[in-house]
Write a structure and sequence with these properties.
single chain; alpha+beta; 9-stranded antiparallel sheet; two-stranded antiparallel sheet; 11 strands; globular
Length: about 260
C-alpha cells in the first residue's frame, strides 16, 4: 500500500490516547532469573515507580479450565518502570522492551526516551539482535472534546475507510462498527483496527459514540543493533503519519488545528 506523503503537523487538539514502541529479541533468561537492579538504578530518577508482575500468555478460557483442575499456569515475569505521574512506562521481559505513554507530544521526544532506555538495556543485557520492531498509535476522535457534536461522521471520516457511514439507512443506527485490516506498507506491515466505539464520560455519566483509529506497525525482519533500529522506527513513524491523515477528512484535520513543524 502506497500512501500519499502528507505534510507533517502537530495538532493542538491531539486525539492520541496511547503510543507504544516495542523491540523484541531472542530470549534472555538472565532478565527473569534475577531482579534488574542495574537497569533500574540507571532509570529510577525518570521512572521511580517499580513493579514486577506475571505476564500471562494463556487464553482466558484455558486459564479458567486449568484453575478448576488446580493446574499451575506458566507465566513470564515482567518488570515495569513508571514515571511519577504514571504517564510513561518502560516494560521489560525476557523477550522484549517496551515504552508506553498517554502523553505523546511529538515523535522526537518519544523516540528519544525509548532510545535512552534501550541503550542502557543493551549495555546490561547485550541482546544478540532484534527480531521484531513495532510502533503503535491509538487515536480516539471524540466529537464533544472537539466541540463538533453537530457534525456527522461522514464529515469527519472518509468513505474509503468506512463506507457504511455513507449509507443513510445505516448511519443513524450504527452503535459499534469495528474493522480490522492487515496491510503491507513500504515500511513493513500494519494491523489497522478502526471504527465506531462507545466511550464513557464518567463526569456526565453518559456514553458517547467515538471513532477509534488503532494502527500497529511492525516488521519482523532481523535487525542488528545500532542506527538501523532507529531508522526503522523513523520509517514507521512516517507511514503512521500518512495513514492517520489518509483516514480523516480535511474538515476533521482542520478542526484539530494542525501546526506545521
Amino acid at each position: 500500500m502506497k500512501l500519499p506523503d502528507y505534510e507533517r503537523v502537530i495538532y493542538e487538539y491531539n486525539p492520541l490516547i496511547e503510543v507504544i514502541a516495542q523491540i523484541r529479541f531472542p530470549t534472555i533468561l538472565k532478565i527473569t532469573s534475577q531482579e534488574p537492579v542495574d537497569f533500574q538504578d540507571r532509570l529510577r530518577f525518570e521512572y521511580p515507580i517499580f513493579e514486577a508482575s506475571k505476564n500471562l500468555q494463556v487464553p482466558v478460557e484455558l486459564s479458567n479450565v486449568l484453575t478448576q483442575f488446580n493446574s499451575s499456569i506458566a507465566s513470564d515475569l515482567m518488570y515495569q518502570f513508571k514515571s511519577e505521574d504514571l504517564s510513561w512506562q518502560i516494560s521489560v521481559d525476557k523477550n522484549s522492551i517496551t515504552l508506553v505513554t498517554n502523553k505523546y507530544e511529538r515523535y522526537e521526544k518519544f523516540i528519544g526516551r525509548f532510545k535512552y532506555a534501550v541503550e542502557i538495556f543493551e549495555q546490561i543485557y547485550n541482546p544478540s539482535f532484534y527480531s521484531r520492531i513495532g510502533l503503535r498509535y491509538r487515536d480516539l476522535i471524540i466529537r464533544s472534546k472537539l466541540n463538533i457534536t453537530n457534525k456527522k461522521w461522514i464529515e469527519l471520516i472518509p468513505k474509503h475507510i468506512a463506507y457504511e457511514l455513507y449509507t443513510p439507512e445505516l448511519e443513524e443506527s450504527i452503535i459499534n462498527l469495528l474493522k480490522n485490516l492487515q496491510l503491507r506498507t513500504e515500511f513493513g506491515q500494519v494491523n489497522f483496527n478502526h471504527g465506531l466505539v462507545q466511550v464513557r464520560d464518567i463526569e456526565k455519566n453518559l456514553d458517547e459514540t467515538s471513532y477509534l483509529l488503532d494502527a500497529d506497525f511492525f516488521t519482523e525482519q532481523k535487525i542488528e543493533k545500532g542506527e538501523n533500529v532507529w531508522n526503522t522506527f523513523d520509517k514507521a513513524n512516517r507511514v503512521a503519519r500518512n495513514l492517520f491523515r489518509w483516514s480523516i477528512t480535511e474538515e476533521l484535520h482542520n478542526t484539530m488545528r494542525p501546526q506545521t513543524i
